Amino acid sequence: MQADDGSQIPTPEVSPEQETPSHPIHDLGHELLDAAIEAEYQTGGHEESEEQARRHVAIRIARMIGGFVVIGIGIAALPLPGPGWVLIIIGLSLLPFAWAERTIRVIRRRIPGIPEDGKISPIAWFVMGALLLTTTVVSLLFGAEITNWVVGLWDK
After folding, report:
1. Are residues 77 and 114 in the same domain?
2. Tell me: the pLDDT tens digits for 74-100?
3. Domain co-membership, 108 together with 125
4. Transmembrane residues, as ranges (predicted)?
5. d(Cα 17, Cα 19) in Å, to the nearest integer?
6. At 52, is the secondary structure helix, strand, or coil?
């Protein structure tokens, strides 16, 4: 091997008896990582280095794990009080799979009032913003009075 300045870097001599046999699981892990990086080069964004490809692979794996965890929590929340379907849709939207997007479209078709493309109309955004602003202002201006009124109802 040569260093940057052109000089030789000494390498230790290893006899065949000293070589450690490779572990099949270790080799499989390297093969899977190499395959994932190659797939990222072919299907992902235009990575300029192997480090970027490794980072994108890690992000995809994290999204998959997080998506499946959120879906599991959503499924558990279906019979319990809580936003089960919302969590399932959020979990599916995290997954980087085409079947997840198709499943989201099927769920949207079955829920009344939600367009298939998932876009919220500008009027709905305006109404939600106005309600949020009104609720915030009322709670800031009259929060103590409302609290006293509610406590007074319980005391009766």
Report:
1. yes
2. 999 888 877 888 888 889 989 888 888
3. no
4. 61-78, 84-102, 123-144
5. 6
6. helix
